Automatic annotation (TrEMBL):
GO terms for biological process: axon guidance; dendrite self-avoidance; homophilic cell adhesion via plasma membrane adhesion molecules. The chain crosses the membrane at residues 12-31. SMART domains: IG. Residues 112-194 form the Ig-like domain. Keywords: Immunoglobulin domain, Membrane, Transmembrane, Transmembrane helix. This is Ig-like domain-containing protein. Pfam families: I-set.
Length: 205
């Protein structure tokens, strides 16, 4: 490949294709080739994913893509399917010829990071909804588990960064310590919140 870049999952990404100094009378085609489907330097399915002609006429074949009039490919949201993929730009200029530029795109990998969006101590009245809000970042997508007083109460794989725990019509029995854990093969993160539920019998109007 001519270039290899790394970007974060779910971010947007711009892939340039600077093959000619002057962009007039130029047609640029973009292709993608996943190594898992075979070598990209041999036979591969040359179906374009985007193209632009003479800096004005744009054609986009996938909704998650866009292309600038200068030929740069825009991936609106990086997905797991984009990891390790070779993006190939072909630029054809009248009376000059055809040039090729390749970019391998890697998605950054690392341990999860939990970000609490609530205070470490929460006071709530019985019968109200309890929100313990948090987000999680990391790739590969982490597994997130919640525990109440050291008893696991749920776990799931997180793909949208949302790691909050919500209890409707909370009772006094649901007060206590809540811990959130996130892990993938690169490591883990955790945080704890203490919840105090005030019973309605003790509320004086």
């Amino acid at each position: 490949a001519d270039r290899e870049i790394t970007a974060n999952i779910q971010d947007s990404c711009l892939l340039t294709c600077s093959l000619f100094a002057y962009l007039g009378n130029l047609i640029i085609y973009w292709y993608r080739c996943s190594p898992e489907n075979g070598p990209c330097n041999k036979d591969w399915n040359e179906i374009p994913i985007a193209q632009v002609k003479n800096m004005t006429e744009k054609i986009i074949y996938y909704p998650n893509l866009d292309i600038d009039t200068n030929g740069a490919l825009v991936i609106k949201k990086l997905l797991p399917m984009d990891d390790g993929v070779m993006f190939i730009c072909y630029a054809t200029k009248a009376y000059v010829g055809r040039k090729k530029f390749t970019t391998i795109l890697n998605i950054a990998k690392g341990r999860p990071e939990l970000i609490p969006l609530c205070p470490p101590v929460i006071h709530v009245i019985e019968g109200m909804d309890l929100h313990i809000d948090a987000t999680v970042h990391g790739y590969p997508y982490p597994w997130v588990a919640w525990s109440h007083n050291k008893v696991v109460i749920g776990n799931k794989s997180i793909e949208n960064n949302e790691a909050s725990h919500i209890i409707r019509n909370v009772t006094v029995y649901e007060g206590g310590s809540y811990s959130c854990f996130a892990n993938n093969r690169y490591g883990y993160d955790e945080f704890t919140v203490n919840v105090y539920v005030q019973g309605i019998d003790f509320i004086h109007i």
